Amino acid sequence: MDNIQTKIIAVANHKGGCGKTTTVVHLAAEFVALGKKVLVIDLDPQANASLHIGKKHPGEVAVTSAELLASESNLLIDALDEDTNFTNVSLIYGSLNLGKTEDQLKENSPRPNEELKYKLEPLDGLYDFILIDCPPSLKVLTSNALSIATDVIIPIESGSQYGLYGVTDLIHHINKMHRINAHLKLLGTLLIKHDQRQNVCKLIQSEAEHSIGQLFTTTIPLSTKVNQAAIFQQSLLDFDSKSKVRLAFQSLAKEIIHKI
Length: 260
Ligand SMILES: Nc1ncnc2c1ncn2[C@@H]1O[C@H](COP(=O)(O)OP(=O)(O)OP(=O)(O)O)[C@@H](O)[C@H]1O
Ligand SMILES: [Mg+2]
Known about the structure:
Blueprint: E1 7-11, H1 20-33, E2 38-42, H2 48-53, H3 65-70, H4 76-79, E3 80-81, E4 89-92, H5 98-108, H6 115-119, E5 129-133, H7 140-148, E6 151-157, H8 167-177, E7 185-192, H9 199-211, H10 225-231, H11 236-239, H12 244-259
Parallel strand pairs: 1-5, 1-6, 2-4, 2-5, 6-7
Antiparallel strand pairs: 3-4
Helix pairs in contact: 1-12
This protein binds adenosine-5'-triphosphate (ATP) and magnesium ion.
Magnesium ion binds at residues 20-21, 44, 48, 133.
């Protein structure tokens, strides 16, 4: 897609549980609240973003990102679902079937890392933001996201002493992807579960600044409301619009819009 209007943001980090899905889900809601048209693409076999945003169970969806990627014909129209739990957020579901997509792509696709790019071409200009939730790995699914993304966000769990483990590999992988996507840039590093009073958070913050850079001014605090909103399949905006964690995602959305 050569359209410079649509910002395609891949939220990626092969470290599991660092806040990728949470970032995708709540950023989507905040972009919509700021008047933007948003599509979420779930590329994770765990399908957590789909379980939160989608009205259907991923197992019952005929065309998910897995079928979209693996099929010879372009099933994009069938994959797009506009009727989600989040008003004005469209969704391409993920599903467990993504577990075999990698092998299927390697066997059948002339360009296994660029299949998503090819399949999304008809969407040119239809959305302001496309947010891609990547799985916790740096294999073909994440490469498909990075080959089409204009920007990448790296969430880091700042409350964990292991928050930066493997980050050098991630940066190396992103740099390698520049060979097939020269437009890709690091939009920002996002500190999740961050508490400025905690020494471990301060340490991770300064190490992240040093090893990755581009830290967002906004940080996301630790809050039980994140899990609660997921249980009720709501955005934080609907669940508790005045909570600190919701205001943080709102501030992040504004920071991103200002930045691009
Ligand atoms: N700010 C936060 N405060 C409290 N809990 C959070 C916060 N952000 C995320 N969580 C919780 O941490 C867990 C991991 O978050 P999330 O699922 O977003 O990570 P992930 O990187 O997508 O994980 P995976 O690599 O498995 O896809 C989830 O249970 C989520 O609800
Ligand atoms: Mg996830």
